[in-house]
Amino acid sequence: MEQALNPVDWYMKLLAPLSPDIKLDLISKLSESLKDTHTYSKKNSSKSSDFFSALSGAWEDDTSVEDEVRKIRESRTSNQTRIIDEF
Predict the structure, then answer these.
(1) What sign has the CA pseudo-torsion 64, 66, 68, 74?
(2) Helix 37-55 vs helix 20-35: angle between axes, to the nearest 10 degrees?
């Protein structure tokens, strides 16, 4: 049975293929975030909320939710019918 990676090992595996310049930039940003956690998290959360606020209402369509659900269900296909038809 494979043992689960702890978060640090998981991140190290993820970051291993990055170039040294990118790793140094990441270290710098992580260090800065530790120096002033309150300010950094406040800036970061405001950017996130701005991003999601900009997306709010971006999709404009007159189709009702029920019609969208119906279209999605009608577009689905089943592999079972194809398998049965082949025999």
Answers:
(1) negative
(2) 110
CA dihedral 25, 31, 36, 41 (to 10 degrees): 60
State how far Cα 44 lies from the chain centre: 16
- Count of all residues that appear for the chain in the document: 87
Instruction: State the CB neighbour count (10 A cutoff) for residue 45.
Output: 10
Give how far the C-alpha of residue 50 lies from the chain's centroid of Cα atoms, to the nearest Å.
17
**Is the pLDDT higher at 53 or at 71?**
71
Query: Tens digits of per-residue pLDDT, 55-78?
Result: 766 667 788 889 989 998 888 877
